[in-house]
Write a structure and sequence with these properties.
heterodimer, A: about 475 residues, alpha/beta, Amidase signature (AS) enzymes, eleven-stranded mixed beta sheet, two-stranded antiparallel ribbon, 15 helices, about 35% helix, B: about 60 residues, mainly alpha
């Protein structure tokens, strides 16, 4: 007996749709029913597309006429609320007045529609993508805990089977953080692989667009559609996507795996340390080589990303600050947006110099290894009322801890994917992070897919608990 | 010129004294990280910011 539709991956659903065994209408109805049943508890969506069933009916008609487009045809996908959409308003997570975002499709949404996807709705995000908690969204594995952020609604919706996949954006970890603590896959591609036209900016040189999905294969399928030229995004590299499906289902013999022992393993919750070391042992059994290394310049990374992210965000919000409109933001976001004024130009440029050093460090490392593996986060989902948690021998601010292991990959622009690697003693998901060479997402998919297929819980989703 | 006026002038902000104090307090931990960065001698390192003149449609700089 096959699993319920909401528990199936795109990889499972797509052939059924292609072959006429499953109607996109029935699949969309399944997700809409689950949204109706569970999203009052989760608050993962801010809007459902009025025409979701019409989109599904159109896909069904096209497919029955023999015009199947590809693996996303008829698949319901949700979109983070900072992606412009022609049929739904965009708020970028804010209730503050004075913002009137265009009603048009962003590059990524247009690509999904061209691939036949059903855009089912828009997911909740931390205001202006400036935070890692996404209130009031709940984590499906424990509704008293946060889903992470800033793409928290996307993480919760995918984990609870309210959509087949969702778009997120990642400036310091905002795809991988919710992926890790909601137990989904999430990939931040190489900077420039996915065009960001129509994504509300947060920090131009750190922002990345990408998907959250149930499995690695699904992430490859969605990224295949998202990647490629975007003439309206000056940061887009205009690099064509490789055939990621060719990377799936292959052994990792011959692959050299690196482990950065400083920074990424400095302070972890015990269950995470155990899970990640088990994953490394698992990988070591099949790989050609495990090579450990250190990157001392990571010690300066936090100051660098703060300088760049704060200054950039403040520049984008400049008019709102000048007009006194930031008082309408939530307190945490208002503060971050305002204090970017204190970052000096030399600090900003020194951060960009440090960035160059780190890039050179990782060029050297990635000439000796094919992928780098480590934990995605040093902690699992924290309670909504917690500000600090015990990590190792010290208490640490949840906000400082939550992006500690993800932001380095935004600074250097390298691709990074988070894959579930088990649960802690409270039944909360743990994430394993792989990073690799620029525009070599195929290598990440290759290794992450091989690892994921050793996991009994691959693609697992849950009703809210 | 008062200290508040200096901040307003240099940083281009119009926060009242209480708000300015809150923001400076919130910035303190971040500034500690940026101070580490300031200690590095990066004189010979090009920043990861590349200026690139825009090409016009016929391929010459506009």
């Amino acid at each position: 007996m096959s699993a319920p539709l909401w528990q199936q991956s795109i990889e499972d659903l797509s052939p059924q749709i292609r072959d006429g065994a499953l109607s996109p209408i029935a699949l969309t109805e399944t997700y809409l029913e689950r949204i109706k049943a569970f999203d009052e508890r989760l608050s993962s969506f801010v809007m459902i597309a009025d025409d979701a069933l019409e989109q599904a009916a159109r896909a069904a008609s096209e497919i029955s006429d023999g015009r199947w487009i590809g693996p996303l045809h008829g698949i319901p996908i949700a979109v983070k609320d900072n992606y412009l959409t022609s049929d739904m308003p965009t708020r970028a997570g804010t209730g503050a007045p004075g913002f009137d975002f265009d009603r048009r499709d962003s590059n990524a949404v247009a690509r999904l529609r061209d691939a036949g996807a059903v855009i089912i709705g828009k997911t909740r995000m931390h205001e202006f993508a400036w935070g890692n908690e996404t209130p009031p969204t709940s984590n499906p594995w424990d509704v008293n805990r946060v889903p992470g952020g800033s793409s928290g609604g996307s993480g919760a919706a995918v984990a609870a089977g309210l959509c087949a996949a969702a778009l997120g954006s990642d400036t310091g970890g905002s795809i991988r953080i919710p992926a890790s603590i909601c137990g989904t896959v999430g990939i931040k591609p190489t900077f420039g692989l996915v065009g960001r036209d129509g994504v509300v900016p947060h920090s131009w040189s750190l922002d990345h667009a990408g998907p959250l999905t149930a499995t690695v294969a699904d992430a490859a399928t969605v990224l295949q559609v998202l990647a490629g030229p975007d003439a309206a995004d000056p940061g887009c590299a205009n690099v064509a996507a490789k055939d990621y499906s060719a990377a799936m289902g292959k052994p990792i013999s011959g692959i050299r795996i690196g482990i950065c022992r400083n920074h990424f393993f400095d302070a972890l919750q015990t269950d995470i340390e155990t899970a990640v070391e088990n994953a490394v042992a698992n990988l070591a059994a099949g790989a050609a080589e495990i090579k450990e290394f250190n990157v001392p310049n990571l010690a300066y990374g936090l100051g660098a990303i703060f300088a760049i992210e704060l200054a950039s965000s403040t520049a984008w919000h400049d008019r709102a600050i000048a007009e006194g409109r930031t008082k309408n933001y939530s307190d945490d976001v208002r503060t971050l947006v305002e204090i970017g004024r204190f970052v000096t130009a030399p600090d900003y440029l020194k951060a960009e110099q440090l960035r160059r050093l780190l890039m050179e460090d990782f060029v050297q490392v990635l000439s000796e290894v094919d992928v780098i593996v480590g934990p995605t986060l040093p902690l699992t989902a924290w309670r909504k009322d917690e500000k600090e948690v015990r990590i190792g021998v010290e208490d640490e601010s949840v906000l400082a801890a939550s992006w500690r292991l993800t932001y380095p990959w935004n600074l250097v622009g390298l691709p990074a994917i988070s894959v579930p690697c088990g649960f802690d003693s409270n039944g909360l998901p743990i994430g394993l992070q792989f990073a690799g060479r620029p525009f070599d997402e195929a290598m990440l998919f290759h290794v992450a897919d091989a690892y994921e297929k050793t996991q009994a819980d691959r693609g697992l989703r849950t009703d809210p608990k | 010129m008062s200290e508040l006026d200096v901040y307003k002038d240099i940083f281009g902000v119009a926060f009242d004294a209480e708000r300015l104090e809150q923001n400076l307090s919130a910035y303190a931990d971040i500034l500690a990280e940026i101070r580490k960065l300031r200690q590095l001698d990066l004189s010979n390192v090009q920043p990861a910011v590349i200026f690139s003149p825009l090409a016009s449609k016929n391929g010459t700089p506009s």
